[in-house]
Amino acid sequence: MTFNILELDKTFELESNFNCRYLSPTKLHHFLIEYYDKHIDKIGCSELGKPIYKLTLGNGSKNILLWSQMHGNETTGTLSCLDVIKFLAEDSAISKKILEAFTLDFILMLNPDGAEIWTRRNILGIDINRDFLTSSSIEMQLLKKVASSKKYDLAFNLHDQRTIFGVTGKKEPATLAFLSPSESENREITETRKKSMGLIADIYKEISQVIPNKISRFTDEFYPRSVGDNFQKLGIPTILFEGGHYPKDYFRQNTRRYFSLALITALYYATVKNNWEENYEVYETIPKNSTSFYDIIYRNVQLSSINDTKADLGIQYSEEIRKGDTEIIFVAKIEDIGDLSLMHAHKEIDAEGRYLSLPDGKLPKIGILADFKLDEWIISNGKKLEHWV
Ligand SMILES: [Zn+2]
Q1: How far is the CA of 160 from the centre of ligand 1 (A)?
Q2: Is pLDDT above 60 for 229?
Q3: Cα–Cα distance between 30 and 100 in angstroms, integer?
Q4: β-pair type (215-217, 176-179)
Q5: pLDDT digit string, tens, across residues 194-217
Q6: CB within 10 Å: which end of the chain, N or C, has fewer?
Q7: How far is ligand 1, taken at its centre, from the CA of residue 5, in Å?
Q8: Which residues lie below 8 Å from residue 307, measured CB to CB, with a gap of 6+?
Q9: Could you cite one Gene Ontology molecular function of this protein (predicted)?
Q10: Ligand 1 centre from 365 Cα, in Å?
Q11: How high is the pLDDT of residue 304?
Q12: What is the pLDDT of residue 118?
């Protein structure tokens, strides 16, 4: 059996029942019941009583636990799990091998209450990924219950990161970032960490062929209350995935594809590699994640009608779901004003000294909506209108 990521990329199909970024918990749950009824097990309910499901595939003697969307507004992990589940359920040489080696437990959408209203935290305002020690949230209690139900050999903690993240030293967004979490303040490279680092090295080597220069390493600063850090401390090699921005892909369907391919790569290498820690040193060579992007930058904007004050405008989208809508919307706001020469943007526009005028003659301010004029240009929701009447 050979593993060729470029070939896999050509033939790989996403789960076509979902082609959105927003994922309604109800839609997900109906789908799981309709298509995977024999594989699912309700592990409990969220604070608001929404079901939380675990889906199990494979018959292997080793166990893998994957959980997604403990942060409600981070759907890529859940959607990618659905893609990977579809891939594994189809009869390929790779999927057979993985399912013979492992029993995989996917907890899909650990935070359905947050998912419904597109917020990071649970409905009581608790960040579930900072709740490991006290386990105040019902959702963390459920994750712990599953995690202690058997001996897990590997864990995947699946997240999304904001569009602000880039790859250090490159003018590229961090489409995927990975982390082998630390177990202590001194970030010691333990035997457990080496295993997850070794598997991340394999992902990096393979997925770099598909999206060169768009992969980074998430900070390994120790978060004593976080799940990954504590799982790794308990001796379960744990890999954190962060789905980030891909050019012109705000709905993250390309990111989702690479995230899914990365998950399959990790499962494949976990299957065929005898020593997961092999090549763990490569992990340290992956460029770090950096906060280096705005969504849009207008450069050389004339701010004052009295003085010759020129500056850059950094604009960032906030993501919102409106009641009754089936997809999120992006609301552009002014995030920074000044010298942004060290920052990149997913879209950069040279205003060539055009004068900024805001509605009602207001002065520029951080946090306001990005609706303004630059001389004759009309900027609406951050974008320059090309045609208007
Ligand atoms: Zn997250």
Answers
A1: 5
A2: yes
A3: 28
A4: parallel
A5: 999 999 999 999 999 999 999 999
A6: C
A7: 27
A8: none
A9: zinc ion binding
A10: 29
A11: 87
A12: 98
Residues around ligand 1, an ion, CB closer than 5 A = 71, 74, 159
| Closest to 53 measured CA to CA, from 41, 61, 64 | 41
Q: What is the CATH number of the domain that holds 51?
A: 3.40.630.10
pLDDT band at 386 (very low <50, low <70, confident <90, very high): confident
Mean pLDDT over each residue of the chain, to the nearest integer: 97
Place of tokens 């995989």: 104
66-82: pLDDT as tens digits = 999 999 999 999 999 99
Token look-up 């919307």 returns 329
User: How far apart, in whole angstroms, are the C-alpha atoms of residue 93 and residue 77?
Assistant: 24
Contact at 8 Å (CB) between 178 and 258? no
Nearest to 315 by CA among 386, 226, 381: 381
Q: What is the CA(126)–ligand 1 centre distance, in A?
A: 13
Q: Ligand 1 mean position to 268 CA, how many Å?
A: 25
- Whose CA is closest to 160, among 87, 259, 13? 259
CA 123 / ligand 1 centre spacing (Å): 15
How many A from CA of 353 to the centre of ligand 1?
Answer: 39
**Centroid of ligand 1 to alpha carbon of 379 (angstroms):** 32
The alpha carbon torsion through 111, 13, 32, 52 (nearest 10 deg) reads -20
Domain assignment present for residue 389? The answer is no
> Domain range holding 330?
294-384
Q: Are residues 218 and 351 in the same domain?
A: no
Residue 209 placed within a domain? yes
Report how far ligand 1's centroid is from the alpha carbon of 261 (Å): 19
Answer yes or no: is 356 within a domain. yes
Q: Are residues 314 and 236 in the same domain?
A: no
End residue of a domain, out of 271, 291, 311: 291
Same domain (yes/no): 256, 310: no
343: nearest Cα among 335, 354, 333:
335
Closest CA to 295 of 317, 267, 270: 317
Distance CA 224, CA 241 (A): 18
Q: What are the tokens at 185?
A: 């303040």
pLDDT band at 388 (very low <50, low <70, confident <90, very high): low
Of 270, 291, 312, the residue that ends a domain is: 291
Q: Report ipTM (2 d.p.).
A: 0.99
Cα–ligand 1 centroid distance for 129 (angstroms) = 7
